[in-house]
Structure formats: C-alpha cells, structure tokens
Q: What sequence folds into this?
C-alpha cells in the first residue's frame, strides 16, 4: 500500500514522499492521531545538529512521541480502532543483560529511520502498548518522554540503597516535572525536593514536598539521592551542586543531555563514595509500566495535562511548520500536533 | 454499513502504447488497481470493496487481486455498466441483493487509477456522507478555467477563487442516490458527468472534502511518469 511520509529534507523544509507498506508483513498498521514534538526533533528542524549528522540522517520523518489508532492487524493481537502508544525504539536482537534501549544495534524512530510523521506507521505488535479508551490523547501523545522518566526511576530503584528519605530533582522543565511526579507516586513516603531557577516554573510543582531556587539552597540541606534533569550548559552546575548536598553513598541519576563533556568534582564524588548512572530513552517494559501508572493513578494524567502547551491541528505542510515554530516560543510544556493527515 | 466502490472502467485508450487498461499497468511492482484497493482493504469500516470493471477484464482483475492481497472475502469483482453512473448502480444493486440497503448505507466511490488517495480523505468522505448525504473531493483550481461556447473563442472566464477541481472519492447515501438517479429523465441522465451532479440537479447539497494535489489520476503516460517520480521508481514495467 502506498503510504505518505512527511520528511524533513533540510532544516525548516518538509516534503512529501511515498513509501510502500507490505500488507502481508505480520505487523500492525497504525494511523497516527496525536504527535508530540521533542527537543531532538526541534534540533533537526532548526538545523542545530552538526552538519555531518544532518547530511547523514536527512531526509527523515521526524517525531518519536505519539499515539495512534490501529487500522490493520493481521494476527489479531490488536483490534481495529484500538488506541495505542507507539514505541520508537526498535530492537533487532535480544540480550539478557543489556536493555533494548542500550543495545547499539537498536534503531530509533526519527533518529535512525523515519519517525511518526506519516499517513500510516507499520510496526511490530510488540512496539505498541494498548491505551485505555478514555485516556486524554493530548497527554498520551507524550508517553514516550514520560516513559524515559519511568525508566530512569526503575533503574534508580535497582541501583540505589534503600534509605530514601529525601530525593532531590534538579531542573524546572518538563523532564524534572515528570520525574518528580513519578517519584512521588513510586515512593510515596519519600520527600521529593525540586531545585530550579525560575520561581514561576517551580510554583507548578505543587506535588513536590519543597522547591528551592538553586541560588538559595540552605547549607544544612541533605539528600539521600538525586536526579539531574537539567542538561546543556546547566549540567555542570547542577551535577556539582548535587555532589555538594548529597549524603555519602547516595546515587545520582543523570538524565540531562549535554552536547559537551561536563567537568565534575570527582574528588568529592570519591570521598562520598557516590554512585552515578546515566539513562537514555526507554523500552517496552517502561511503556507498559507508564500506562499501568496512568490507569492506577488518574491524577498523574491530570498533572501531566498541565504540560500540554499548544495543540495544533495539522492538515498540511504549512501546519507542520507552524507547529514547530510555535514550539520554539514556549517556555514550558509540550507542543502536540493533532495529526489530520 | 459502508462499501467501497472502485470504478475500473478504463479501457486504456489514453495511456500511450501500453496495451493494457491503465489500471492494470504496473507501478512499483504491482498493478495500479492493487495499490488503490489496498488503501480501502486495510480499513475495517468497509463491509465490502466492490470493484467494477469491463466484462472481459473481470477474471483478470479477480486473479490479480487474489495474487496481491491476503486471502479475504470482502473484495468483490463485478461487471461495470455502460456509463460511470450505471456502473455505480450495478454496485448498489449488488449491495441491495447481498446485504440490503438502508438509509445509512454509504458507498465511497473511487477511481481505480487514483492510488495516492489518503486515509484522511477516505475518512472525511465517510463522515460527511453520513451527515450530508453526498460528498465530492476537491482541490482549489490552480489554472485559470475558460469557458467557450463555440470551441474557438472565450465566452467567459469564471472567477478562479470559486472554482475547484474534482477528484475522487465521492461518497453517497446509496439508497438516496439510487432513488434520485432513477427519477431522472433520459435527457437528464445524458448530461450527467458524475454522480455528484445527480444530487445537485435534484437540489441536494454536495459537501466538499479537501483533496490533495498528489491524489492524482493516472490518465496519461505523463501521469505515470509523475507517479514513478513520486515513488522514486526508475522504470516502467
């Protein structure tokens, strides 16, 4: 079946292309419904990635966060009309130790191959997770990035010692919001403190036990563990502040992406016997857990709905460009494309 | 219930030297008609997909669809009529005899040679036909259209901003379409260009659905070249 694909061919330029969907393939055909723009998509769109990377990866359909509706499923594992979240990570092998999102052989939508800006997306059934019928689709659209938080917290639970009286989360953006929200749900007895630089943003973290400006952290503040959700130029300051305030033998979870190597206070890290681990992306198990959390705690979806910034119906390429341009102007939250292609 | 009605009546006279009717020409390893039928086949809302073709091509069409589609009992090939509207009436007759017609039976009629139709266009036709009774897929006219009464000089140049080019699908409430069609005189039938005109002649609104410029009809060899370029295909097979 001929399928329309909307590819970024060069920064700020989407073009229509067609590919062929093999309906004999034992995979599911999904019609995208709500797609969410990620900073990684925006870096391709704006052309802020390295020129060599752009030359290698484009043309490519963007977007790796999205939900859709099952249209065709030859093996009956889904029914037509089922609402599903699509998993962008696409492993080609299994490993008993290494998770699917860390296998170097895995492919990732809108990074190694076409993302979800298509008329139809064809995926193996295990790359889909069924959503409740009544889920807010604008929230469900960014389940992928939520699952990245869930993934990091699950790993933290495996790695960190069991004293979890206070956990600090650095950052006042989307990732910090989701991570601190889920920390409160996974560990209700734990106090979650959030550290940021914009008072207005911190005011939205109403579920956190305390919030602090990073310039006004009390000297006697102590943390058992911490999550770094800052990234970019702020990584260095954030990680070093964490090292200063965290208790010995604490675990630091790094989630913020930085384009450059970050100098950190290794002397104090050694003295305190700290553990630091990184997390990136997520896999099927994390999506399943995230959707289970949506069902178990409906207030999670309510909190996440505050992250929905702009919802832009997209019917043509001009709408796509407008959605990406609007996304650059937002201070917080997610831009959702209501996909009407 | 919703039915797809694929009109494959072309005899190929306009498609250069390629001897087969144009819907059977291979595009990217498959006959064009297969690409078109697939767009409807994957959608579960269609009770049946009825393909209507010239009598002498019925077996051939059945064979290629059996070869290129998964085993199924929802793709039906029957003989078309002498005109497009007679062809549609054959499809409605088939539906009436097999499943029966009711007020909300919808047919989505489509050209076999428009394989680039999109899921959105199909869905919007169905939704609007249920609500309004009749739909036509259109795109704003890009060329200036001139009218000539004598074929030699221009008699008028209509305002382009009010003109659209018709594509397919067109969707209808089948029972109403049948009733309106058989209420027409032979003279009225003679001037019909498509089924939408039946509704407008009888004073019914036809709802417009936004088409796509790439929902092209593969009529001339040039169109096939364009289609292959869109598919990044290099050769005619």
A:
């Amino acid at each position: 079946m001929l399928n329309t694909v909307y590819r970024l061919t060069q920064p700020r330029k989407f073009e229509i292309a067609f590919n062929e969907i093999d309906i004999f393939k034992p995979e599911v055909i999904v019609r995208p419904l709500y797609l969410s723009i990620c900073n990684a998509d925006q870096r391709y769109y704006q052309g802020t990635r390295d020129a060599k990377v752009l030359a290698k990866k484009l043309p490519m359909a963007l977007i790796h966060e999205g939900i859709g509706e099952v249209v065709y499923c030859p093996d009956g594992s889904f029914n037509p009309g089922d609402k599903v979240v699509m998993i962008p990570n696409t492993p080609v092998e299994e490993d008993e130790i290494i998770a699917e999102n860390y296998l170097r052989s895995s492919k990732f939508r809108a990074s190694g191959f076409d993302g979800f800006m298509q008329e139809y997306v064809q995926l193996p059934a295990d790359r889909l997770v069924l959503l409740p019928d009544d889920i807010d689709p604008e929230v469900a659209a960014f389940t992928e990035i939520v699952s990245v938080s869930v993934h990091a917290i699950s790993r933290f639970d495996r790695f960190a010692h069991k004293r979890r009286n206070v956990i600090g989360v650095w950052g006042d953006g989307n990732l910090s919001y989701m991570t601190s929200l889920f920390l409160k749900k996974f560990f209700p007895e734990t106090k979650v403190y959030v550290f940021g630089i914009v008072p207005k943003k911190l005011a939205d973290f109403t579920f956190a036990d305390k919030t602090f400006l990073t310039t006004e952290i009390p000297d006697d503040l102590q943390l058992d563990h911490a999550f770094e959700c800052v990234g970019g130029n702020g990584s260095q300051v954030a990680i070093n502040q964490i090292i200063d305030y965290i208790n010995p033998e604490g675990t630091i979870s790094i989630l913020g992406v930085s384009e450059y190597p970050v100098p950190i206070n290794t002397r104090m890290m050694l003295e305190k016997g700290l553990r630091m681990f990184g997390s990136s992306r997520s896999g099927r198990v994390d999506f399943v857990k995230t959707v289970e959390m949506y069902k178990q705690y409906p207030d999670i979806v309510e909190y996440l709905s505050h992250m929905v910034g702009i919802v832009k119906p997209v019917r043509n390429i001009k709408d796509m460009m407008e959605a990406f341009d609007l996304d650059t102007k937002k201070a917080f939250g997610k831009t959702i494309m209501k996909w009407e292609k | 219930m919703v039915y797809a009605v694929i009109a494959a009546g072309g005899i190929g006279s306009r498609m250069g030297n390629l001897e087969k009717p144009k819907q059977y020409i291979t595009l990217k390893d498959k006959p064009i008609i297969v690409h078109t039928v697939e767009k409807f086949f994957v959608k579960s809302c269609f009770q049946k997909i009825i393909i209507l073709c010239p009598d002498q091509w019925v077996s051939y069409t059945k064979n290629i669809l059996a070869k290129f589609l998964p085993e199924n009992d929802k793709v039906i090939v029957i003989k078309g009529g002498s005109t497009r509207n007679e062809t549609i009436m054959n499809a409605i007759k088939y539906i009436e005899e097999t499943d029966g017609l009711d007020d909300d039976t919808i047919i989505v009629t489509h050209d076999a040679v428009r394989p680039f139709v999109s899921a959105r266009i199909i869905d919007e036709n169905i939704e609007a036909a249920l609500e309004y009774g009749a739909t036509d897929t259109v795109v704003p006219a890009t060329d200036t259209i001139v009218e000539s009464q004598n074929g030699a000089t221009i008699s008028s140049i209509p305002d382009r901003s009010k003109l659209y080019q018709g594509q397919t699908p067109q969707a209808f409430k089948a029972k109403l379409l049948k009733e309106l069609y058989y209420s027409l005189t032979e003279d009225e039938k003679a001037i019909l260009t498509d089924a939408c005109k039946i509704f407008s002649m009888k004073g019914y609104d036809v709802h417009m659905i936004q088409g796509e410029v790439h929902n092209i009809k593969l009529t001339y060899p040039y169109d096939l070249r364009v289609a292959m370029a869109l598919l990044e295909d290099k050769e005619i097979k």
